[in-house]
C-alpha cells in the first residue's frame, strides 16, 4: 500500500516486492451455495454460506487462486466508480467484493462509490449525487491513497440519451481529474456491457454502446481495458444466463465472470502472481 509520505517508486517493482510466493487455491462449491438464492432487481437476499470445498459449476469447476504475503495485505486500495451493476444491491457478494477477496485484500480495500443510476457526465435531470464527478470525488477523498481506480460507467448515459462521443468526453474528463489528483493512480476502464432486452436494442442504444466501446478501446492502453462487453455478449456464459429479465442488470454468475476479468487485468497490470479461471468440462 502506498503512503502519502513515501515515494511510490516503480509500480511493477513495488508490486513484485510486496507479494509473497504463497499461492492458495480453493474451489467454489456452487453458485447457489456461494451467493445464496438470487432475486431480481429491487429485492434483497442475504448472502449464502461461503464454503471452500471443491465441487462443480455445471460441468466446469471455478478455481480461485489467492496470493498473500505472509499475513500482510498485498495490494490496494483500489476504487470503483460505477453504476448499479457494480453496486449489486439485490444479491451479495457483487463483482467488487469478489475481486477484493480474490486479490487478498481486506474488506473495504476496494473503495466502491458506485451508485444505481450513475452516469459518467452530469445530467441536469438527475440528482447531483448520481453524476460521475460527484462519485469520483467521493472515491478520491475517502481517506485512502489509491493504487488504482476502475471506471464502470456508460450504460445510463446512453440510456438517458447521450451519444457515444459525449459519454467518451465525460469519461475523459473523469480520467483527467484522477491524473491531476495523483498521476500515479492506475486508471482502468470497463467496456459497457450489452443491453439484451429486444425493445431496448430496437431503440438503437446498443449501437451507441458499441460506438462508445470502440472509442474507449482506441484511446486506452489495452492492458487498462476490462472487457465486460465481450464477457457478457453471448454463449453459455453470456447473455442467456447472466442477466435478469430486464435485460440490463447482471446476476450473480455475471458478477463471478466480471470479477474474474478484473482480477486478470489487475494481475497483468501490477505484475501479481494471481490466477483465476472458469474451466469448462465435458
Query: How far apart, in Å, are the first and last alpha carbons?
Result: 42 Å
Q: What low-confidence regions span 5 or more consecutive residues with pLDDT below 50? A: 3-73, 275-282
One letter per element, helices H and strands E, the order comes to: HEHEEHHEHEHHEHHEHHHE
Rg, rounded, reads: 18 Å
Strand content: 5-15%
- Please work out how many helical segments DSSP would assign: 12
CATH class: Alpha Beta
The profile of the biggest β sheet is: 5 strands, parallel
As for the number of domains, it is: 1
CATH homologous superfamily title = SGNH hydrolase
Fraction of residues in H or I helices: 25-40%
Oligomer: single chain
Question: Which fold name fills CATH's third level, the topology?
Answer: Rossmann fold
Average pLDDT metric: 73
Keywords, please?
alpha/beta, SGNH hydrolase-type esterase domain-containing protein, three-stranded antiparallel beta sheet, 282 residues, Rossmann fold, single chain, disordered C terminus, SGNH_hydro, five-stranded parallel beta sheet, hydrolase activity, acting on ester bonds, SGNH_hydro_sf
In words, what does this structure look like?
With 282 residues, this protein is an alpha/beta fold. It has one domain: Rossmann fold (3-Layer(aba) Sandwich). 37% of the residues lie in helices and 13% in strands. It has twelve helices and eight strands. The chain has helices at 11-18, 31-35, 84-87, 95-102, 132-140, 155-159, 164-181, 198-202, 205-219, 228-231, 239-242, 252-270; strands at 22-27, 61-68, 78-82, 110-112, 148-152, 186-190, 225-226, 276-279. It has a five-stranded parallel sheet, sandwiched between helices. A three-stranded antiparallel sheet has the order 1-2-8. The protein is globular and about 45 Å long. The model is unreliable at 3-73 and 275-282 (pLDDT under 50).
